[in-house]
């Protein structure tokens, strides 16, 4: 087998294996248990964080520490902010949790209004 073919085969197998751990759940069901699989540990002297980065309808992220005593409160605040902006239907939006992605892209909200708001924000920012 040629080296290029072997590389291609390995890449395809890795993608397949990583996609098996990908989850899609409604935003309303997002919680500490299902976010643990995509969290990034931050281990330094005196720091023991398990961070996730939730997307906002602009080009920013909301970082939450799963080890924080305020995690559940902060997650509910995040959801409530989205409800305030997009209405209660946003809670039914699909959230894709993909541990194979880069840290900033492990969580995606698949909602047309959310994605449109993000697109419009970026257009205003770069025009």
Write structural notes for this entry.
With 127 residues, the chain is of the alpha+beta class. It has one domain (20-126). The protein has helices spanning 3-19, 32-35, 71-86, 112-126; strands spanning 23-26, 40-44, 47-55, 61-65, 94-97, 107-110. Strands 1-5-6 form a three-stranded antiparallel β-sheet. The protein is globular and about 55 Å long. The model has no long low-confidence stretch (mean pLDDT 90).
Structural key phrases:
three-stranded antiparallel beta sheet; 127 residues; 41% helix; 24% strand; alpha+beta
Please report the total strand number as a whole number.
6
Strand order of the largest sheet: 1-5-6
- The poorly predicted ranges are none
What is the terminal separation in angstroms? Answer: 50 Å
What is the H/E order? HEHEEEHEEH
Tell me about the largest β-sheet. Answer: 3 strands, antiparallel
Radius of gyration, CA atoms, in whole angstroms:
17 Å
Q: What structural class should be given to the helix and strand makeup?
A: alpha+beta
Form type: globular
Count of helix runs: 4
Helical fraction equals: 40-55%
Strand content: 15-25%
Q: How many domain units?
A: 1
The overall average pLDDT, rounded, is 90
Task: Summarize, please.
This protein has one domain.
How are the SSEs ordered, and which strands pair?
Layout lengths: L2 H17 L3 E4 L5 H4 L4 E5 L2 E9 L5 E5 L5 H16 L7 E4 L9 E4 L1 H15 L1
Antiparallel strand pairs: 1-5, 2-3, 3-4, 5-6
